Amino acid sequence: MEQRMLLVHAHPDDESINQGATMAKYAARGTQVTLVTCTLGEEGEVLVPGLAHLASDKEDRLGEHRITELANAMKELGVTDHRFLGGAGTYRDSGMVWHESGHATAGEDVKEGTFWRADLLEATAHLVEIVREVRPQVLVTYDQFGNYGHPDHIQAHRVATYAVSLAAARSFRPDLGPAWDVAKVYWGAMSETRMREGLRKLRAAGDTTTFEGMDPEDDLGWWVTSDEFLDAEVDANDFVAAKLAAMRAHETQIAVDGPFFALSNNVGNEVWGTEYYRLVKGTKGPVDERGLETDLFAGLE
Ligand SMILES: CC(=O)N[C@H]1[C@@H](O[C@@H]2[C@H](O)[C@H](O)[C@@H](O)[C@H](O)[C@H]2O)O[C@H](CO)[C@@H](O)[C@@H]1O
Ligand SMILES: [Zn+2]
Fold first, then answer.
1. From atom 22 of ligand 1, which residue's Cα is the shortest distance away?
2. 111 burial type by CB count under 10 A (0-12 exposed, 13-18 middle, 19+ buried)
3. No. of helices (H) and no. of strands (E), the chain
4. What is the DSSP letter of 31?
5. CA gyration radius for the chain?
6. Nearest partner of 200 among 188, 189, 214, 187, judged by Cα
7. List of the chain residues with pLDDT < 50
């Protein structure tokens, strides 16, 4: 079977942070990996001082710069098919604010033309066209909370979920191509056990700044998924270097000496090279002794 995987993400950088190792692993073994990014990340911060002029409140050219960052990241992962939903610049980054309880949320005045205010059916139709062209057996996106509450992540979840249904409906927009039913849909997840183990190692090594304020013995809350709800673990430790190089490519968003890289090597390999998933559509394939699939195409041979 020719394996085809489609990932739907909100901003350039989400793909590398969340599934960079998985993408590199499957691309290396010949799976067709397609990434759809819904915005250009125009409202992002700019961590590189020499690029501060690009910010949305200055020259507003961060979006075009992040197109290049994404292309560079895809080269590191070996992914050759990456697209912007509706074409580059169709949906603008909605921005975000931090809610008092620690997760992201939409600001008071979300601008016209942003992804959060997009017409859901219009945005979904753009994705249906891609789904019917690519015909993926596996689709990956965020959970209903966008994993940490960012409005664009939540909207990407909604568009991806709606597009899976409509792409399979023969009577919906036949002009967008023959119907296609995606066999398996996964939500990216962060294992509670793995995050707790990583935090314990960091704190034991004296690191109090990485994931500052998080106590490994506390309830880790919305950050993580309880292991009872995990369905798949992709061990891509051989591709950690590619993932970290892809994350570094998003230089305006991810500080090389920031929390993502502050992990010591051994913690880094364990935390970043293994990526977790919840299966929300389709039948679970063969599992290991923990009840976890180790291949997202399990059961589809
Ligand atoms: C990983 C991710 O989704 N990044 C988004 C996010 O970026 C955050 C935002 O700039 C926030 O203000 C910072 O405090 C935080 O550190 C950033 O991770 O939101 C941006 C604006 O919508 C988006 O461009 C970026 O890709
Ligand atoms: Zn994002």
1. 95
2. middle
3. 8, 9
4. -
5. 19
6. 214
7. 262-269
* 250 known ligand binder: no
Distance CA 252, CA 237 (A): 25
**Residue 103 near residue 222 (C-beta atoms within 8 A):** yes
What atom of ligand 1 comes closest to residue 62's alpha carbon?
Answer: 24
Q: Which residues surround ligand 1 with Cβ inside 6 Å? A: 11, 13-14, 17, 41, 43-45, 93, 95-96, 150, 253
User: Tokens 């075009």 belong to which residue?
Assistant: 64
Residue 274: CA count within 13 A, CB half-sphere: 20
pLDDT digits (tens, 9 = 90+) for 83-101: 999 999 999 999 998 888 8
Interface ipTM: 0.98
Domain architecture of the chain: domains with CATH: 4-190+226-281 (3.40.50.10320)
User: In this predicted model, what pLDDT tens digit does every residue of 123-142 receive, in sequence order?
Assistant: 999 999 999 999 999 999 99
Q: What is the pLDDT of residue 223?
A: 81
Sign, CA dihedral 277-278-281-282, equals positive
14 is in an annotated binding site: yes
Q: What percent of the chain has pLDDT over 90?
A: 76
Ligand 2 being an ion, which residues bring their Cβ within 5 A of it? 10-11, 14
pLDDT at 166 (0 to 100): 99
Q: How many residues does the chain have?
A: 301
Indicate which atom in ligand 1 lies nearest the CA of residue 42. 24
What is the Å distance from ligand 2's center to 132 Cα? 25
In this prediction the pTM is 0.95
